[in-house]
Amino acid sequence: MDGEIRNYADFINGLLSKAKGHLDGLSREALNWRPLDGETNSVAAIAAHMCGVTIWWMVQGLTGEDVGRDRDSEFRAVVDHQGLITFWGERTTLPSLIDRAQSVVESTSEGLQVDALEDVITMPRMAPCTKRWAIVHTIDELAQHLGHMELTIQLWAGREKGNPN
Description:
The chain is elongated, with a radius of gyration of 16 Å. The chain has a single domain (3-160), classed as dinb family like domain (Four Helix Bundle (Hemerythrin (Met), subunit A)). Helices cover 59% and strands 6% of the residues. It is mainly α. The chain is built from six helices and four strands; from the N terminus they run ααααββαββα. Strands 1-2 form a two-stranded antiparallel ribbon. The chain has a two-stranded antiparallel sheet with strand order 3-4. A hairpin with a 7-residue loop joins strand 3 (120-121) and strand 4 (129-130).
């Protein structure tokens, strides 16, 4: 794998690893809590969306294979009493879903050649872009959503301590 592509893959998987690490020790209630009902997302929804972003851009964007993404359902992800969520119609745990997204990053990166990074792709509801832009956009999205996740966890911890702010 080319060094540039390896760096992209490592960066994406590093962000996903941080998200997975934040899930450790959170209760089901904490994973499903929304700071502002109907206006913000839960940690579970953010994690599911991060995986959706990754799989959609890395598979559909880079290979053209339709992944059947259901973006809206990502934001409805709820961890049930068994510790499972429904992601694109499939029952799984959040850590397993993140593992799947990381595996997708590795497999699609392995097959990608650096000279293909300037190939133009067209994604639904998006302007045409290069494969390089798609990868950088994925990194941008994941970093932003990791920040959302961290803030949501901090707000939950403040709530747990009785801090109303």
